[in-house]
Amino acid sequence: MKKYLKSGDFYIVVAFLIMAILFYSSSQTYEQQSQVGLLNKWLNGQPFKEQLQGISFIYAGDTVSIQAKGYAKFIEFFIRKGAHFGTYFLLGGSWFLGLNAKLKQPLLIAVVAWLSATGYAGLDEFHQMLTGGRTPLFQDVMLDATGALTAVLFCLIVIGVKKMHKRSR
Question: In what helix (H) or strand (E) does residue 136 lie, and over which residues does it extend?
Fold first, then answer.
């Protein structure tokens, strides 16, 4: 297993698995993915509603607030956008780790990993456009790209710290 991790193959397989999961997810309508019913059941007491009541902003031309969406849809919005960021964080990081193990050119790999994840985010939104009941959003591509960039920068920082630590020995 250590050899598999060191070669980068594991991370490349993870990247392709994430892409397959994203493709499947984009094939589903909003209704198929919606967790509003489950959230209504779980969050019946509407925890933190008082604290969240004052939050209101515009995302992709749509008002996001408890007043505009209702409590469960408001919470689901943050879960969905967190999933966007987190999934592309994993995708960008997986591409970086997989390619860096093979090429050892961290800055070039950072650009390639970020552009790969961002390009896939664009393709994913295009795929959503072809799926009924879905709305492709440029803002989601930007959120996805930010998740991937965060992972890539994190990887670069870790590599930099490791190199500095090695040199100080």
Answer: none
